[in-house]
Amino acid sequence: MPVPAARKRPLRFTVVFAICFLAFEGAIAPAQCGDAEPKTIDAWLGRVRREQTQQRHQWSVLVRDLETGRTVLELNPDQRLIPASNRKLITFAMAMDKLGPEFRFRTELGSVGRFDDASGVLNGSLVLRSNGDPTLSSRYLNQKNPVSVLRGWIAAVAGQGIRRVTGDFVIDASAFGPRQGRYPAVWDPDHKQHAYAPLATAVALNKNLIRVSVRPSSSPGYMGSVRVYPSDE
User: Fold this and answer.
1) Residues whose CB is less than 8 angstroms from the CB of residue 171 and which lie 6 or more positions away in sequence, other chains included
2) How do beta strands 17-24 and 164-165 pair?
3) Radius of gyration over alpha carbons of the chain, in Å?
4) CB 116 within 8 A of CB 123
5) DSSP string for 171-218
6) Strands 225-230, 210-215: parallel, antiparallel or unpaired by DSSP?
7) Which of 40, 138, 156, 184 has the largest count of CB atoms under 10 Å?
8) Which residues pair with 111 in a beta bridge?
């Protein structure tokens, strides 16, 4: 459904809004999560500085009062670090401000070509178009099978009387523009192989992840098997 036109009020915070970007070069001991929190900002800042020296942590912190513009706290504010999951805070705030709580993503499944009612044959192709819906995943449908999203589309196509398609299944991911599908230049190439860093595209089925299962043969000298699944992570 469309975004309500009446909602134009900018998003404001009545408390200090802090964004802390962290990068870690070494492992963090689990016991640190239970350490007593510092009583003051100065005490916390002192602990952070010690961690940077002793454990090779990197911090970039800027805390600013949005009402007065006064800088409350800063530590390496101009140091560029990958924000990781902290970016979700900014993404959520921006989405609520620009789109509103009633916004709905729109995913369309259509066809191009000529449909023969008598035979149920579509002499053409099916076209899937989306504008970045992040919920095209089985986890949002309370399903364990990662292809459950596809089954709903198949049922919709069959409901239109289509029994066979002579063309292709075309995915239109143009909504994000020509620069989608590119990793930022500042990213470490090692991140690209992990499931938390798929490419962002307008059509993200199962978070743009696949699962590859490689099994050796039970007999030496024979070929093993490789199977690819839509991801169920």
Assistant:
1) 127, 128, 203
2) unpaired
3) 25
4) yes
5) EE-GGG-TTTT---TTS-GGGGGSTT-PPP-S--GGGG-EEEEEE--S
6) antiparallel
7) 138
8) 126
Model confidence pLDDT, tens digit, residues 168-185 = 999 998 998 887 778 877
What number is the average pLDDT over the span 34-47? 73
> What share of the chain has pLDDT > 90, as a percent?
25
C-alpha closest to that of 173 among 142, 136, 145, 140: 136
pLDDT tens digits along 51-68: 777 766 778 888 899 899
H helix runs in the chain, sequence order:
41-54, 87-98, 148-159
Q: What is the pLDDT of residues 105-163, one digit of tens each?
A: 889 999 999 999 999 999 999 999 998 888 888 777 777 776 778 888 889 999 999 99
Cβ-based neighbours of 174, under 8 Å, separated by 6 or more: 202
Spell out the residues 6+ positions from residue 35 whose beta carbon is closer than 8 angstroms to its own. none
Is 136:107 a contact under the CB 8 Å cutoff? yes
Cα dihedral value 130, 133, 137, 143, nearest 10: -100
Strand partners, 74: 62
pLDDT at 103: 92
Taking the CB of residue 58, how many other CB atoms lie within 10 A of it?
14
